[in-house]
Every structure is written in structure tokens, then in C-alpha cells.
Amino acid sequence: MSTRILTRRDVERLLPMPECVDLMAEALAHLAGGDAVLPLRTVVWLPDRSGRLGLMPGYLGAPRSFGIKVLSLMPGNHGTKYDSHQGVVLLFGVEHGEPLAVLDASSITAIRTAAVSGVATRILARAEAEDLAILGSGVQAASHLAAMAAVRRLRRVRVWSRNRSHAERFVAREAARYKMTIEVTDSPRAAVDGADLVCTTTAARGPVLEGSWLAPGAHINAAGACFASARGLDAEAVRRARLFVDRRESALAEAGDFLIARAEGVVGDDHIVGELGDVLLGRVAGRQEDNQITLFESLGLAIEDLAAAHYVLTAAIRSGAGIEVDLGGTHGDA
What we know:
Blueprint: E1 2-6, H1 8-14, H2 17-32, E2 36-37, E3 42-45, E4 52-61, E5 64-73, E6 85-92, E7 99-104, H3 105-124, E8 131-135, H4 139-151, E9 156-160, H5 164-178, E10 182-184, H6 188-192, E11 197-200, E12 219-222, H7 235-240, E13 241-245, H8 248-254, H9 256-263, E14 272-275, H10 276-280, E15 293-297, H11 302-319, E16 323-326
């Protein structure tokens, strides 16, 4: 039987950011409506704790998708030619379990993570938000710039990174891509000062964003720290914000920004207002006042990968993209 292999280049060509934002909104609404099966991810560490392998299985009712993402996370890759996230998304047939596709996971993860932040920004940020701060200058910084540009008309963009030369290369590349001026700042505080959109995309294990820096009415997409022991925001940033998550169960198990603030006694479980899907379905109010600070804590969910992979596979079949190989078991006389 035929299994389609789709490369990073295939995924990037077939999964445009604006379409992915809409796709992620649909998937999150179906999750909130109960039309999904989503176990917590399983993590396997290397003995020296230098890297880990994440296993993210799931089922999504619409588009009907069944599969798993297997992803390595290697922090030591920062500054090398390798992305910190490497892996594959595997799609299987819902009726017979046959392997339908093997897709590059680095590109799917980069695009869908930022697209979910795009959903959060679209439903939580002020309509006139146009001043963007990006903390970080890696893959997620680039994809978050694309997502923010897809949902808001940006007037100003400032970028900070621990490695200024990385930030300068990022700015030169992205400024040419978007035909706009992008500034490099010397500190995260300078980047955030007065910004009404803030995206944290660094792999830092300690806070790079302090709550005292945030302007009234700002919206934050916290996409850097995705494990219980890591945080990109200090407790004051969490406390000041109206907090939304992609999935409550995952946040209570893995969201370091929230869990560490809770351990410090600053917030409780009731500080989580709801899931993005709850807002999309009208069950929970999003932003209530212009001066309110809103925060989306992003962890990443298997149903997001499945929705993106299904979309890419459908487009690939239409266009003839990818390579077909023979995988899976059949009975010749059936």
C-alpha cells in the first residue's frame, strides 16, 4: 500500500500561515467540543538529560485524523546547523490503521505552534494592537512574526535575543521578507516597552519577561517554555494577566510559567480562565477591557499536529507532492 513521505520543503509550501491559523481555530474548537482523544505526552530522557524524546499520540474528529508525533528536543542544537526540534508526524488510516503519511515534524511544529498563537492573538488581543515585541530570534521567532502579521497589521517590530548577532541576522532576513523595519534591542525590557503584542520564543529556563514591564492592554503569547521546570515569564507577569491555555489538563501538568508561579504562591489553579477552544465556542469571555493584560500559555497539542498533517497530506495528494513508498501489511487474498 502507498505511504506518502513529505519533506520540510513540502510542508512549508503546502501549509501557508493564514490557512493554518484558521485550521488551528477549527481543531481547538473541536477539542473543546469533545471531538478528540488527547493523552498527555510521554517524554523519554537521555541518561545525561541532554535531550529528550516526546511522544504525542491523538485522534481528532474533524478533520478525521489518527496518528502520533515523535519529536526529539535537543537544547544543545542552539547555535548549530540543527533545529532543536527534530522528528516526524505519522498519520494512520482511521478504519484500517494503515500508515498514510510520514511528514517532517520540525516544519509542522514551527508553523502550527505560531498559528495557535495567531488564534490566541486574533481572539484575545486588542483589535488595534500593532506594536510587536519578539523575545528570541530562532525558528519560532520567525514563525511567530509570520503569524502575527497574518492576524494584525503590524506598525512596529522589536526583537531581542541573548545572541545579538543572531538577532541581527534574523532582522536582516525578516525585514527583507516583509518589506518593513524591524529593530534589534539591547534588552528584553527595551523590546517590550510599550508593546501591545509580546511573543516569548526562547528556550530559556528562567524568566526573560517581567510583569512590571508590560503595558496596559498588552497580549502575550508564551511559546518558549513547554515543560514544568522551565519558565519564560516571571510570576508577576502571570499574576497580572488573564490567563488562557490550549488545554487545561496539559497546563496543570506541564506549563512551567504557570506551575512555578503557583508554587511561589502567587496564583492558584483558578487563575486559568479557560482554553482557547472555550473562547472560540463562546463558553468563556476573552478580553473584557482594553487595559486588561491577556496571556496565552502555549504547550502544543497532538491534535494541532494531526490537523496540520491532514491538511498537508490532502494538498500533497492533489498536487502530486512527496514520495510514495510501500509500507504496511496486507493480505493478498483479502
